[in-house]
Each structure stands twice: as structure tokens, then as C-alpha cells.
Amino acid sequence: MGKANFAVFVDLENVGGKESMLRYVIEKVKIQGDILLGKVYGYTDQYSDLKQCLLSNTFSVVPSLRWGKCQKNNLDIQLVIDAMEVAYVNPLIDSFCIVSGDSDYTPLVGKLKSMGKHVMGISRSEAASEIFINACNEFIFLESVAAKRPPVRKSKTKETAVNGDINELVTQVVTILEDQDEEQMYASELKDTLTRLRPDFSERDFGCATFGKLMAVLSEKSPRLKVWTDASSLMVGLISAEPQAQKLDKSNWLPAFSQALERFKAEGFDRVNPSILKSTIQADYPDFEERQIGFKRFSDVMKALEKEKLLVVEMDEAHTMLLKIC
């Protein structure tokens, strides 16, 4: 899919209201295209730390007035009405991002898809319904990238205005390329994406006269980036990461799992899906297998972690297993 025009609808109560999560959602969408419209539902004073992020991205809010037991249902209905109105009256918008995991939105997803719209879902795993996940064209678990999400960029100071933060830019470029099917882009497309993410982006902030020269600097800075010319067009891509030298075994598996759980906790996730935890470990240790650390199944690993008081295994109302991080 080429550059998309998104409408983003955020159910704050379902996904939590941390600024870091909202910034990640916005970044993930902007990597794929422009956000033409954004709304958050259920806003209250407890989410006041989101104000700057919402205002700078021109999101509007639908407040939660906390009047009566049906307020949450009213907000859900309002989100559906707003999304359908946009789908019918704004032909510029071809993609929708529903930031929620609530199965109540499944009929909305079906209707949007029948109108030819691309639907992306984003949610914490503990709040995500399998029905809603399967209904979307694509679905992203917030936890799955929590550990590798680049830090929020701070406002420029006199020191960074000239030199820029090269390391942060490298991380952001790698993140953008990882989202591409072939992990490569035309340099012009990459610059457009960076400008969507950072409207004040300029090569000169990093001491380079052209974007091509900046990419050459980044490729020298990072072993993961490569720059080349294809039919007179400048390309930027990823070099496959080196395999993890260290392997998990019976002597070191517990600290590795403990660190992964701590990263989730630090990002504000109190519960995670077991599959997310396993995929995180496999990202750090591609050769990971349960038998390497003395277990037959991943469920046995979870029982051992529970015995170590690192987590508690729970079942939600849909009988989906969740891991509560201690």
C-alpha cells in the first residue's frame, strides 16, 4: 500500500492513557501516511499529560462526562457514528486506525472494509479481542514494540540545533525501514516520512547540505543501514542484523525473561499476552527454544516464572491467557 490518508480514532479507556503509548500510535500511523483527522474518546483531567501531544497533532477530544452507567457505551457509539460519517463525507480518507481492542467495533471494521477502506487496529494485548484482531486488515500490539520504540524527541536546544541527535535519527530511520515490506525505500520517500514525523526536520540540523549526504553519514554511523543508487535514484535500506551471539540456556534464561518483563512494566504494561513475551525473547535470541532452558512447552516457562514471583498467570473473560507482571 502506498502513502495512505488516515483518520485515527482512539478509545482511551481501552488502551490506557499514557503519553508514550499515544506517541507510538501516532508515529506508527505516520510511517504509513498522513493523519488527516484524529479524535480521542473518553478524555478526562486524568489524561492532562496528553494535551501537548494531542494539540501538536491536531487531535480533537470527546470528553467523558461520567454521567450514568451508560457513558462508556455512549462513547463507543459516538466513535462509530463519527467514523462512519468520515467514511461517507470525506473521500480523501482511505484508511482508518481504530486504537482499541474492543470487539464492539468489529461491525464498524466490517463496514469500513466493505467501503474499500483499509483498517488498522492498535491495542494492548490485554484489551484486545481476538474477534476484533482478525477483523482488521492489520493489527499491532503495543507491547510488541515497546522495548525497541525510539525515545520521544525533546525540543531543540542551542547545542542540538546545529548538530542534531544522530543516534536518535538512526533509530528512527531503522524503525521506518523495518515497517517496509522489503526494508528499503527511495531516499525521497524516506525524507517525506521523516518530515511527517518531524515537521521541523532539516538535513542542516545535522551538518549536511543534502539529504543524500545525511544518509551517507547515517550509514557510516550504523552497521544496519546501507545507501546505494538504483537507476539514478538514491535508495536506503537495512542490512540484516547480526545474529545474537549469546544463547539462552539454563544458567541465563531467568535474567533475560526478567529484563523483558521489566521493559514492559517500564512502558506501562501491567499485563501482556504470552505470545508477545515469547516473540520479544525470540527477537533478542532468534535461536530460542524451550528445550534449551530445560522446558518442554512455553506454558512450563510461565509456570516457572510464576514460581519465581515475576508474574501471575490469569485468564480473562474470553478465556484468553494473560500474564500479570509483578
From TrEMBL:
PANTHER family, A to Z: HTH OST-TYPE DOMAIN-CONTAINING PROTEIN, SLR1870 PROTEIN
Matching CDD domains: LabA_like_C, PIN_LabA-like_N_1
Protein name: NYN domain-containing protein
Domain HTH OST-type: 165-240
Pfam families from the UniProt entry: NYN, OST-HTH
InterPro entries (alphabetical): NYN (IPR021139), OST-HTH/LOTUS_dom (IPR025605)
GO MF, one example: RNA nuclease activity
Listed PROSITE patterns: HTH_OST
